[in-house]
Amino acid sequence: xxxxxxxxxxxxxxxxxxxxxxxxxxxxxxxxxxxxxxxxxxxxxxxxxxxxxxxxxxxxxxxxxxxxxxxxxxxxxxxxxxxxxxxxxxxxxxxxxxxxxxxxxxxxxxxxxxxxxxxxxxxxxxxxxxxxxxxxxxxxxxxxxxxxxxxxxxxxxxxxxxxxxxxxxxxxxxxxxxxxxxxxxxxxxxxxxxxxxxxxxxxxxxxxxxxxxxxxxxxxxxxxxxxxxxxxxxxxxxxxxxxxxxxxxxxxxxxxxxxx
Length: 260
Known about the structure:
Elements: H1 9-20, E1 38-46, H2 52-61, H3 63-71, E2 77-83, E3 93-99, H4 102-115, H5 121-124, E4 128-141, E5 144-157, H6 166-185, E6 188-196, E7 205-212, H7 215-231, H8 235-242, E8 249-259
Helix pairs in contact: 1-8, 6-7
């Protein structure tokens, strides 16, 4: 990323301390480290309302292929979402899967093309469609299969003068400790912090994704965010110095998912 010429070491140190200060002392007792890359493919669809029942049937028809891929280790997770908060011209549904390799991810994509599921009538009826391919190095989950849980996605954009390690900084010192506690408490089933592996949006964009066990889990997540900001007043300004909140967006979906 670009840097401003006036970026000074003292300012960077102050920024690091401000972000670290946002975390309760108990959350800093164990070091957060990057994990091996986890790749996720997501197909986004704008399905006419009259075809929503057909979407559910097609998702069920794809399950055998996904179960085989998860059983043989090609992927580690898969699922489908129904968007609950609709934009006027936005996505209504999506389907996705995750793998610990790009090869595994693309293998399932290739199978979907060969099986004909990618050209199923309900998908052909979509008024809009686009794909994304993400990579995450900060993630965790509880194994299992869940129906009707909630996915919350928050998208952020780093400023052009943010330090090169800005995402690592906020992930290790702010997001991950909070999310690990929520995972341990059972409020959430999975989390990941994603960036695009194939850049179809502006570089510097990242997503914080959680799967909440239920509506109460969403409340606990929101409360944890508020508590972190209240306990450390420097957290907001620290994030604001690196993140352009004017383009921040949220998404809420109902999710069926399986994690190995």
